[in-house]
Amino acid sequence: MKICLAFSPGGHYTEIQRVMKAFEGHNHCFATIKAKSTMSLPNAYYLNDTMGPTMIHMIFNMIIITIQSLRIILKEKPRIIISTGADVTIPLIYIGKILGAKVIFIESICRVNDLSSTGKIVYPIVDLFLVQWKDLTKKYNNVKYWGNIL
Amino acid sequence: MIFVTVGFHSQGFERLIKKMDEIAGKIDEKVIMQIGSTSYKPINARYFDYIDNFQKIQALNKTARIVVCHGGAGVIITAFEQGTPVIAVPRLKKYNEHFNDHQLELVDALYIDEKIIAVYDIDKLEDTLNCSFIGYLKKEKEENRLVKALKEYIDELSH
Fold first, then answer.
1. In terms of C-beta density within 10 A (0-12 exposed, 13-18 middle, 19 or more buried), how is residue B100 classed?
2. Is A23–B77 a contact, with Cβ atoms under 8 angstroms apart?
3. Out of B76, B77, B146, whose CB is closest to A147?
4. Buried-state track A75-99, b at ≥16 Cβ within 10 A, e below 16
5. Residue B113 burial (CB < 10 Å; 0-12/13-18/19+)?
6. A-chain residue closest to B151, CA distance
7. What pTM value is reported for the model?
8. Residue-level pLDDT at B70
9. What is the mean pLDDT of chain B?
10. CA of A145: which chain B residue's CA is closest?
């Protein structure tokens, strides 16, 4: 079964590495931004960075990222998409969901009192939204707490 | 050995580095510091700003008796993976150590969960270095509950 793991470099990548064992035995590919830490990943697709000097740049970047994400989904046809954020993974999550994949979002361990903005944007459509602190299940109806990465 | 680490954040963390330098001058135990963007340079401990080599960082975390760090998830995870107890001092906006106080959130929650020790008043740091609670901190489990649950969910989807 094909799994696509989507994440930004840095903390989001660190967090997904902590749960990598859960995906053993399945084919997987990676969708991320090119950085020192991610450039040697096997089977990796590199998306544009969302950041830009102006809002126009950022909107333009998001359009490019959306096209890139569509290409990845059409090529890899993942059965499951798993994301730890951040915003660069939003198009992949939405497109993946529309084209029939199951989507899992794992909110960061740093989010104790509320979801991240990425989390709030994808919350309406993901199949499984995992939070890492139990109290968040009181605040949001459709999130699950299955423990955390520590 | 005490390993002090303040991560990759763009602002310095003078409050922690200065205090640990002062402590290093008083105690026999060796102190090594990763000072990041901090402009204050320790005089009683070996220090470096960053190392590219992550394996060296992991080795420092592994050999240390305690890791004293800022409240960043990355450094805390790295220490936890190596089985080394963590004393975390959250960076605070009011001292220009960070742009906001979100490190407080994570440090508070992990402290309540007994995974780390939190120090909020830097003058209490020295006493904490030898407190008995260090021995009672929760350690990494053989099988992480979240990993197990995710694995079961994914395996079920593949049938």
1. exposed
2. no
3. B146
4. ebebbbbbbbbbbbbbbbbbbbbee
5. middle
6. A22
7. 0.91
8. 97
9. 94
10. B146
> Looking at residue B64, what is its pLDDT?
97
A146 CB within 8 Å of a chain B CB: yes
Q: What does the pLDDT look like over A75-131, one tens digit per residue?
A: 999 999 999 999 999 999 999 999 999 999 999 999 999 999 999 999 999 999 999
Tell me how far apart the alpha carbons of residues A136 and A120 are, in angstroms, rounded to a whole number.
Answer: 12
* CB proximity list for B6: less than 8 A, separation 6 or greater: B12, B13, B16, B17, B34, B35, B36, B38, B69, B70, B75
Average pLDDT over every residue of B66-95: 96
Average pLDDT over residues B59-71: 97
- pLDDT number for residue B110: 96
Residues of A in contact with B149 (CB under 8 A): 146-147
Name the residue in chain B with its Cα closest to that of A37. B54
Contact criterion met (CB < 8 Å) for B105 and A113: yes
Distance in angstroms (rounded) separating the CA atoms of residues A125 and A3: 18
Best residue of B67, B105, B107, B150 to probe chain A, by most A CBs closer than 10 Å: B150
